[in-house]
Amino acid sequence: MSERIIKAFKTAETEKISHLDYFNIAVSVDCVILGYENKQLKVLLIKSDLEEFSGLNSLLGDLVRPDEDLDEASYRILRERTGLNDVYLEQVQTFGRIGRHPSGRVVTTAYFSLLDLHHHQLRLSHNDLHWHPISKVGKLAFDHKDILDSCLHRLRQQVLERPLIFSLLPEKFSLRQLQEVYEAILGTELDRRNFRKKVSLKDWLVDLGEMETDVPHRPGKLYKLNPALKKRLRARLRVS
Amino acid sequence: MSERIIKAFKTAETEKISHLDYFNIAVSVDCVILGYENKQLKVLLIKSDLEEFSGLNSLLGDLVRPDEDLDEASYRILRERTGLNDVYLEQVQTFGRIGRHPSGRVVTTAYFSLLDLHHHQLRLSHNDLHWHPISKVGKLAFDHKDILDSCLHRLRQQVLERPLIFSLLPEKFSLRQLQEVYEAILGTELDRRNFRKKVSLKDWLVDLGEMETDVPHRPGKLYKLNPALKKRLRARLRVS
Questions:
Q1: Per-residue CA distances from B44 to A9, A176, B124, B151 (Å)
Q2: pLDDT over 90 (residue B20)
Q3: Which residues of chain B neighbour A12 with C-beta distances below 8 Å?
Q4: Complex ipTM, two decimals?
Q5: Domain architecture of chain A: domains with CATH
Q6: Percent of chain A scored above 70 by pLDDT?
Q7: pTM listed for this prediction
């Protein structure tokens, strides 16, 4: 295609000079770390150290440093605050409403992870960092309740489509255990027969031909995750 | 839980003063607008007006204004550059590598849409704005090739799970037309029999009991999208 217009190019420098008041934003990262334990879904919260939000909990977050990539910042913050360094973080969504932060314009990117709490030990010393049951989360600092709700909404959509939650189960599990994880995540009780029918339509499970032992109820059949999916799941959890 | 430590609160103001060099970032929006036309997937590109990227195409993007919400900026930019004002934009991912922009630190959020080009007229006057076949996209300005590839990757994952692409088809369509759309998006030819088997396993289609007319090949059966899904798809496209 021929160029019909003679264009006036800008340089990166003149572009910046003509937009100086645009370069006044800070970017932060907020980590939405969900954990499963004792049939409950929990989220990692910390007491806000800002006077404006005194008494409120917030997600784990911090400003991105001037010399730091956005994705790197998420891992740095999680490591610094919790000691966790073997967790895959998935970027979920960026929140950029004006006025969302009292210090000035701060645009924040939310990162998400879903953990089995039995396999992850935290250093829980810092600012009342704690696992908070999702069902009991009230008001949070900043727009963190919106951020949490967006992540939950997305997780609830995805658990029905992809085998995300098998990282929360032991190697061998019963359909009862599987249903308990789903109920914790979806925040609702599921009909046992409907649930089993739906799950059986997926190619997610392999019947091991074994039964549960030492359980306080009628032993159920044991299953494992379809090995083909396990490979895909591992790839997903490790490679960004 | 009792508070074991007496905490020194910061205020929003002292927090900002101690992090002044963090508030030097600009945030931009880049729109990845994909369109389907004549069995081809295309992306909306524009000639970069930065000297540093002279001769290269870029995605449609701009800096977010100081008084503008992030999501609003995406619609403003699309409207200003193309005249399009009836398109749903989905936020996809934020790119925040240091050094990605020659003017300074600019973190960019990518927004995505998938259009049937027959239903959307653009004002194509501005800076060689044009529809570029995906298969012929070469080097792009900034990290826009990475951004485009990430969006494509996500779209290709999702079209197999969700009935996203029916907005690209007429009300009544044949399996041949459906396969053509899939092939354009996935960028690969599909085996006809395998494709039909896979599609028939979904609950997406309703057989209309009618045949194609006026086609240069053997007429095929006509289908429509399952009305239940159509409702969900509409809700998805309209409500953010």
A1: 21, 49, 10, 13
A2: yes
A3: 50-52, 101-103
A4: 0.89
A5: 23-158 (3.90.79.10), 164-238 (1.10.10.10)
A6: 92
A7: 0.90
